[in-house]
């Protein structure tokens, strides 16, 4: 894996690296592993939360919590640099999906199935008739009685959720609703007796070279689409993949950080559990960022001065205007793919952008020649949210919500523009290297 795609963010190289990152990251655990591999190759030092940290000016570090959230940063080049504040980029590692239940085994009509739980606001219809695989984290007890966790990825089609034929559901195209409990259990094969799922996991780990296994005790596993990320369109105008929301922003932020030279404090935080409210030990509403601030800011530095001089760019994808459903957007706020990243604004504070932070982002974009769009939800519709308002509320850091426009948010396969990710990375690289905000 390359250290970074390039300081110039060549479009072809950037997008090919992005496709590889998406394919290798079927779960938040795998995404964070990919990110730590890149950070290691770039000379960043891993820090364990259970130890004392010794931090050097200008050096790069990262720390991981729960295997699914990460903070990566460069220290300011000198202590005077703290007064200039930190440049934060925030994203999230999780995506809506179907997670395997703790006791999932089902045997119905001779078919072996697994019970699943819906994670986040899943767009369910696209999950039918897909080649599905299974990935996540498995915690085992070894033959010495030690508990050890392993990442697991079957990395091949192992399941499918077949649709009911139109002949048996004549209203499927006009009035179909999906029962998450009864419609969604994937089929993994045909058996005469119910299989032990934990035994199957143990065998898979053994086949992958994990030795000295005693028992699989627990797991966090999710199904995912085996279809690879791809460039699509007559001129490859689009990127299509699972989990663009929000692995796209994780990759963008990481590449911007790796391509930046040391200077002011530069931070990338990617939290898990945004899709379910962010309330967890490693979520944005949890203590991860505040505890990191306590450890990184030295005693002689006024923390509130540092935060007041900082900016947090919350990067999470935006709704591009769909040509078949243009009426779902405000007439003046329909972002188009490949027309630049989007500033997201909401009068009811579902986004944290204000006139000052939005103006600063526009200014940063102008410095690198990247156009910017705006998104405001229709006044007769509800608005989603991001980690931006949570961070602003918890820390007081000035915050702006931005994102790459996309189609089919929360589908099993989403679409974004092939220019937009690279252009947002260019803005974030300039942001990381800006001496004064």
Task: For the structure shown, list the relevant keywords.
437 residues, 2 domains, 20 strands, 25% helix
CATH architecture of the largest domain: 3-Layer(aba) Sandwich
Task: Kindly give the count of domains.
Answer: 2
Q: What is the class of the largest domain in the CATH system?
A: Alpha Beta
* Alpha-carbon Rg, integer: 22 Å
Number of discrete helical segments: 10
Q: What's the CATH superfamily of the largest domain, by name?
A: Zn peptidases
Q: SSE order, as H and E?
A: HHEEEEEEEEHEHEEEHEHHEEEHEHEEEH
Low-confidence stretches are: 1-6
- β content, as a range? 25-35%
How much helicity do the residues have?
A: 10-25%
Largest sheet: 9 strands, mixed
Shape: globular
The N- to C-terminal Cα distance equals 33 Å
| CATH topology (level 3) name of the largest domain | Aminopeptidase
Helix/strand structural class: alpha/beta
* Residue-averaged pLDDT: 94
Strands, count: 20
Biggest sheet strand line-up: 1-2-3-13-4-14-18-16-17
GO molecular function, one term: zinc ion binding
Enzyme class: hydrolase
GO cellular component, one term: cytoplasm
Organism: Nitrincola iocasae
């Amino acid at each position: 894996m390359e250290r970074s795609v390039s300081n110039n963010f060549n479009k072809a190289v950037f997008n090919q690296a992005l496709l590889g990152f998406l394919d290798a990251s079927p779960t938040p655990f795998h995404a964070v592993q990919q990110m730590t591999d890149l950070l290691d190759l770039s000379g960043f030092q891993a820090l364990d939360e259970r130890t004392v940290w010794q931090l050097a000016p200008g050096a790069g570090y990262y720390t991981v919590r729960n295997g699914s959230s990460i903070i990566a940063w460069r220290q300011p080049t000198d202590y005077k640099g703290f007064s200039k504040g930190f440049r934060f980029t925030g994203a999230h590692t999780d995506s809506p999906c179907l997670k395997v239940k703790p006791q999932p085994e089902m045997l119905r009509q001779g078919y072996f199935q697994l019970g699943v739980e819906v994670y986040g606001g899943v767009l369910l219809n696209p999950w039918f008739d897909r080649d599905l695989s299974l990935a996540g984290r498995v915690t085992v007890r070894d033959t010495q009685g030690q508990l050890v966790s392993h990442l697991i990825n079957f990395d091949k089609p192992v399941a499918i959720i077949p649709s009911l034929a139109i002949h048996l559901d004549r209203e499927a195209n006009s009035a179909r609703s999906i029962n998450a409990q009864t419609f969604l259990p994937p089929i993994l094969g045909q058996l005469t007796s119910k299989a032990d799922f934990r035994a199957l996991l143990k065998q898979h780990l053994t086949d992958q070279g994990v030795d000295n296994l005693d028992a699989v005790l627990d797991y966090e596993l999710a199904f995912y689409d085996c279809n690879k990320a791809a460039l699509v369109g007559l001129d490859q105008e689009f990127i299509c993949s699972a989990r663009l929301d929000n692995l796209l922003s994780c990759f963008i932020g990481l590449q911007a950080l790796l391509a930046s030279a040391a200077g002011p404090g530069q931070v990338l935080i990617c939290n898990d559990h945004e899709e379910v409210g962010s309330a967890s030990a490693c979520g944005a509403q949890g203590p991860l960022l505040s505890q990191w601030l306590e450890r990184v800011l030295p005693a002689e530095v006024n923390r509130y001065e540092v935060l007041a001089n900082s900016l947090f760019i919350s990067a999470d994808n935006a709704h591009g205007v769909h040509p078949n459903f243009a009426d779902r957007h405000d007439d003046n706020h329909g972002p188009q793919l490949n027309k630049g990243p989007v500033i997201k604004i909401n009068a009811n504070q579902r986004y944290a952008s204000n006139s000052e932070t939005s103006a600063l982002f526009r200014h940063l974009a102008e410095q690198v020649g990247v156009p910017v769009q705006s998104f405001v939800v229709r006044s007769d519709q509800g608005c989603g949210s991001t980690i931006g308002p949570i961070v602003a509320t918890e820390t007081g850091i000035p915050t702006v919500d931005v994102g790459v426009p996309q189609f089919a948010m929360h589908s099993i396969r989403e679409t974004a523009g092939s220019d937009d990710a690279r252009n947002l990375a260019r803005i974030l690289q300039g942001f990381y290297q800006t001496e004064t905000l």
